[in-house]
Amino acid sequence: MKYDPFVLPFISGMAFVLIVVIGKWTIWFKGLPFSDKKKFLNGLFSRKFIYASREVVSESMLHRKVFRSNFWLGYMHMSLAFGWFLLIVAGNLETRWYSHGTINPPWYPIFFEFFVHDLKELPYRRFFVFAMDFLLLFVLSGLFIAIYKRYRSGFVGMKKTTRQKTIDKLALTSLWMIFPLRLLAESFNAGLYDTGGFLTNTLGHYFARFLPLELLRYPAWLAYSIALGTFFVSMPFTRYMHILTEIFLIFLRRFGIREKQAHSTFTDVELNACSRCGICIDKCQLSSDLEINNIQPAYFLRDLRDRKPDLFKTETCLICGRCNTSCPVGIENTNIRLNERSIHQFFSANAYEYIGKQEVKNGKVAFFAGCMGHLNPLTIKAMLTLFEKAGVEFTFVDENGSICCGRPLKLSGNFMAAGNLVAKNKDLIRESKAEILVTTCPICYKMFRDDYRLDIPVYHHSEYLLKLVEENKLDPGFSPSTVVFHDPCDLGRGSGIYEQPRRLIARSYSLVEADHKKKDSLCCGGSLGITALSGENRKTLTEATIASLTLNHPEIIATACPLCKKTFAGQADVRVADIAELLLEAVDHKPADHKATSVAMHKPADCLEEVEI
Amino acid sequence: MADFGYSLVKSGKTDLDTAGNALARSVSEAEPGFNLCIACGCCVATCSAGRFTNFGFRELIHRIKRGEEKLMIAEAEKCMLCGKCTLVCPRNINTRNIVLLIRKHAIIKGL
Ligand code: SF4
Ligand code: SF4
Ligand code: SF4
Ligand code: SF4
User: Fold this and answer.
1) What is the pTM of this model?
2) Assembly ipTM
3) Rounded to a whole number, what is the distance in Å from the CA of B33 to chain A's nearest CA?
């Protein structure tokens, strides 16, 4: 006998979820642009397929990245995902073994012990029953942590967990019921027929002492089947869709498919792949410092997935990228948010017609200071002097004032207007006949690199100055000062440059680290990614970041971004300087007396500073 | 008519019948900093757009307060949102947000 009506809830749930998932995958794939489809098909028959499969195991099953966030959180995810998977595999092997390799109906392995009471014919019986019990215990331990986490999230290293919707809670309850019910059903069986291992047999014999197992056995198996069926049916409507979407996302990403400049079905895949694990909530400074707790990707992506985008959530975000680098699924949160912002264009495409043709001198190296750069004449002066000392034939492209690179407009979603500025600057750079472009501003740098499609290489000055030093064109001396480096958002997380500025500083100064560094560095508070943030709130962010930077009592805070520098300078008690200034001082072998120069500039004086250049 | 070398200067007075204050109201509601400007001109001195054309944030909000809505909605488009003015403003006014709010008001109202 291999069938009983109680398996129906399970079967119908499974059939339903299979149909929906295949349907969704097909729709998503069909909606991709042609070039992406080609990438996908090429990827299937390349080495990338193996890498993707490996990532599916390490991320969807073992949850390696979650482990990095917190051990117990990782263990919880792993035991539920990997444990359940092994349970299915082991169950299948057991039944296959028992029935000598014949193909069984899909429910048979799941409810095996309901159908088979006499396991004596099962070779290696002791091994199988032990393995099955052990795996069940493994999953139950993860479940225990999951339940405990609801009440004490600090245990898994989380200050805040995601607030779930009712339907998600329903799905969660059915998921939580599955394994205890399986334990009960198998124990009842074991109590009656001795089919269990160390766990279920012990429990079963204990129950047998005071419970009418004959009566309870069938309802227990039925309840187990219903819990499974309910969970499966709920999957497409809840966050549990991520289980079946993340796998697809990993393949798409490994095959080179990324977010474009507008939403696509790839975005839908990402939206569905978010497990609302909530890791991004604690990482977000708007939550940790300002108690704005509803805009993080866990919620923002959910609203988008439900097709109910919320303007406040879309606009309230620093675009600092901390949620991108901490997300275990690797969702491109900030790009999705910018694309969502770009649905409304508030500037017309011909907004900057007034900018006429600009004069530009020729040179091998084009130097671009950018708008913010012009607020820091000391940095500009340092760069120009260093160029001269190194004998670089350069041209200062925006000497008489910059045409903005366009990134601030892009960050506000005004892609069209940004494109207008991009075209103007591109002309300028082309006309300078330069062979490389160097900028001191990470915001410009990211824009040049990602959006300009220039035919010359782009360098951030941290990279370029390091190159000059390593080629012995500059010879910096030593200084006893301690320096901490602040990773600007668009340079670190945005462009992946962490080491070059550190190496440059470490050549001449003793480098100390901040509390939050590299991928985990904080936003200075000056972010251009958000417009509706009050000056007070910005100050709070800046304070927290300065506190992190001054953990090891450095004498100088070094930045590689004119905006960060300006933001810190008003609030820090220690000197704030750009890496170019520090390098120049080291080259001159006379590190400045930091006390004399630690001017926390008052804001009105900034205009004067501006006039100086 | 004989040319005596003089011309008439256009009157700068505000005509209360044609002046609109809806824009000023909607912007200052969303961003109260709108009313904090002391007309110091730091923002104009530093303005990126101001290097290429006759444009400044101070004048923008001043003329919105005078009711020149339509003109200023078009004028606001000259701003590149670079953010320099926010950094230099002694009153800590959220200038970029104000420019965006002006443009949003225009698009939403179909102006
Ligand atoms: S965006 Fe990433 S980190 Fe945030 S809830 Fe979703 S999966 Fe978790
Ligand atoms: S980009 Fe930064 S501010 Fe925006 S949601 Fe992510 S962590 Fe928060
Ligand atoms: S944000 Fe606009 S108004 Fe302010 S300085 Fe830049 S271009 Fe000028
Ligand atoms: S800098 Fe600030 S206070 Fe001064 S004119 Fe501009 S907006 Fe007004």
Assistant:
1) 0.91
2) 0.90
3) 9
